[in-house]
Automatic annotation (TrEMBL):
Protein name (record): Cytochrome c domain-containing protein
Organism: Kolteria novifilia
Highest taxon of the lineage: Bacteria
Keyword Membrane: yes
Database matches in SUPFAM superfamilies: Cytochrome c (SSF46626)
One function term, GO molecular function aspect: electron transfer activity
Assigned keywords, A-Z: Membrane, Transmembrane, Transmembrane helix
Residues passing through the membrane, by range: 12-32
Keyword presence, Cytoplasm: no
Amino acid sequence: MVAPGRWKRAVGQTVVLVGLGVGAGVISYWGIREAPPTAPPAEREPSTPAARTVSITMPHEEPVPPLGPNRSTFQTSCTICHSTRLVLNQPPFAEERWRKIVEKMINVYGAPVGATRKEEIVGYLTAISARKQLAGMPEGGEQAAIGRPR
């Protein structure tokens, strides 16, 4: 004899499985049936000027990397994958942070950069970061950054 709680459970599971089977059958039927034929939309003139679609093409210009030591190494190594805009829009990182970023590009993403060129790129990025930091200094600019009185 089957315990009363077990049979209710077995009947409930059977009902759920049958329901899932019927649901899958309905979904597959709707998925394979042919869609009713539709007439192509009639072309008509827009009734108002606002209804027309207008497109424009914006010029694409990349910024020129600022002058600095080993700029050409940066241009030939980094702009293979990155736009100059991406690199120049980074915050002014310290040298160690730039080194970690460049090492990640080499080790994780396979950037074709040797040890000498790696140091040249880090030096360039650090130099332009220092300039950015000086340019963004509040009151006092370079004088305040160096620690000299104004």
